[in-house]
Amino acid sequence: MKKIISFIVLIILLVSCVGNDKMILKDSIGKINKVMVVAKISDWTGDIGQEIRNSFGELMVGLPQSEPILSVSQVAPNGFSSMMKASRNILVISEGNPSNFSVKQNVYAKPQTIIYVQGKNDAEIIEVLQQRKEEIRRIFLDSDIKFTQSIFKKDVTKETYKTLQNLGLSLTVPSKFRTVDDTGEFLWLRNHLTSGIAKTGSNNILVYTVPLEDKTKVVDRIVAIRNAIGKKYIPGSDPETMHMITEEAYTPFTFDAIIDGKKAFETRGKWEVKNDFMAGPFLNYTILDEANNRLIIVEGFTYAPSIKKRAFVFELEAIAKSLKIK
């Protein structure tokens, strides 16, 4: 009888575990903007590996130093251990027929994104990688955005900002950011960087609006708008002669985007302080809010001399993409 009861209890526990992801899945591990590639060594050292490195290794625009969009590391299938399977972003390369592309979430850990690419030979695998490279990068980046935002939500600021209230906006802001200016029309938040040689630098967030004059010419106005805001609100060490501008020697790149379901433009470039030596990267989202006849601008800019800045700009991207229009 005791054996029967023990067996029934065991069955119940097993069923409970199968029905509860939290009991099965461990927490994922891995750095932001990094992908673990599961591929044979011969594939990784050959044309397939070169295609992956070329795709992920494309340089992120707008950064002073050369930094790839995504960093990659490789492990052979027979070395894909339990620890490796906990990686947050994984790309699995395999041979098989027919060629295939699929995406799965939370297979071995949570949160986790795994992309599977299959082909019957090297040429087919490379063709899938080439056709899907933008999609693959976007899937991994979006996954990291969501993960970063989930971290921020655990330590969100308790501050209220009158600019956000007046403009009918909300933003997920980590508590490490402090208010520089909050006029009711213009918000400037700053996080002083405290680690390594970046301790003299800062990460900054700006939020403001301007009237929507002609929606067909929004892109043409982005630089002029941010220069005007820099002159009005962001002075240098001598406010009479110094203020933030868009770096004149570097043309920003603008892409289509969606923020809170609305059409937007993502602009990446470099800022500098006029008549001074301060400079760095910026990320600007200009959002069309046609219902209120305005452009909503949320921008991040980084000052971190002599060190790489991809991680800082990505953090600002995650904050900007949390914007909600009430």
What does the secondary structure layout of this molecule look like, with pairings?
Layout: H1 2-18, H2 21-24, E1 26-27, E2 34-38, H3 41-44, H4 47-56, E3 71-75, E4 89-95, E5 100-105, E6 109-110, E7 113-119, H5 122-154, H6 162-167, E8 169-170, E9 178-182, E10 186-192, E11 202-211, H7 218-233, E12 244-246, E13 253-259, E14 262-273, E15 279-289, E16 294-303, H8 310-320, E17 324-325
Parallel strand pairs: 1-6, 2-3, 2-4, 4-7
Antiparallel strand pairs: 5-7, 8-17, 9-10, 10-11, 11-16, 12-14, 13-14, 14-15, 15-16
Helix pairs in contact: 4-5, 5-8
Structural class per helix/strand content?
alpha+beta
CATH class of the largest domain: Alpha Beta
The proportion of residues forming helix, as a percent range, comes to 25-40%
Shape label: elongated
Q: Give the biggest beta sheet.
A: 8 strands, antiparallel
β-strand percent reads 25-35%
Name of the CATH superfamily of the largest domain: Mog1/PsbP, alpha/beta/alpha sandwich
Give the rounded overall mean pLDDT.
Answer: 91
CATH architecture of the largest domain: 3-Layer(aba) Sandwich
What is the domain tally? Answer: 2
Order of helices and strands: HHEEHHEEEEEHHEEEEHEEEEEHE
Rg from Cα: 23 Å
Predict the CATH topology of the largest domain. Answer: Protein Transport Mog1p, Chain A
The total count of helices amounts to 8
The total beta strand count reads 17
Poorly predicted tracts of residues? 5-10, 12-22
For the record, give the distance between the C-alpha atoms at the N and C termini, rounded to a whole number: 62 Å
